[in-house]
Amino acid sequence: MPELTLDGLRVTARPGTTVLAALQNAGLSPLRRSLSGEPRGALCGMGTCSECRAVVDGVTVRTCLTPVRNGQDVRRLLEVNRDF
Q1: Model pTM?
Q2: CATH number, domain at 31?
Q3: Residue 80 is assigned to a structural domain of this protein
Q4: pLDDT tens for residues 1-28?
Q5: Which of 21, 35, 52, 72 is a good FRET partner for 6, with 20 to 30 A between their CA atoms?
Q6: Which residues contact 5 (CB under 8 A, 6 or more apart)?
Q7: Is residue 11 a part of any domain in this protein?
Q8: 22: which DSSP letter?
Q9: By the 8 A CB rule, do 19 and 28 touch?
Q10: How far apart are CA 3 and CA 52, in angstroms?
Q11: Residue range(s) defining the domain that contains residue 16
Q12: Predicted pLDDT of residue 65
């Protein structure tokens, strides 16, 4: 079973699941903040809406399309970020 870190919290996830599922199973929501500071979370779950973005091992990804891997470091985007 992959072990990963979600905002500093060590968790175990089922193999074949996504980072989004690991975040939701850990009760970590919202996933990010909009430019105006509103809480945002996954809407579509299939990579279309991009609302589930987070930083995995230093790279911003859509968590619903990112499979869990052992040793990942996942950080939610809770600060307003104007880089996108």
Answers
A1: 0.88
A2: 3.10.20.30
A3: no
A4: 999 999 999 999 999 999 999 999 999 9
A5: 35
A6: 11, 72, 73, 74
A7: yes
A8: H
A9: no
A10: 20
A11: 3-75
A12: 97
Contact 52, 1 (CB under 8 A): no
Domain count, the chain: 1
Q: Which residues of 5-40 are buried (b: 16+ CB within 10 A; e: fewer)?
A: ebeeeebebeeeebbbbbbbeeebebbbbeeeeeeb
18-77 pLDDT tens trace: 999 999 999 998 998 888 889 998 989 898 999 999 999 999 999 999 999 999 999 999
If you search the block for the tokens 């911003």, which residue do you land on?
60
Q: Has residue 13 been placed in a domain?
A: yes
Residue 81 covered by a domain? no
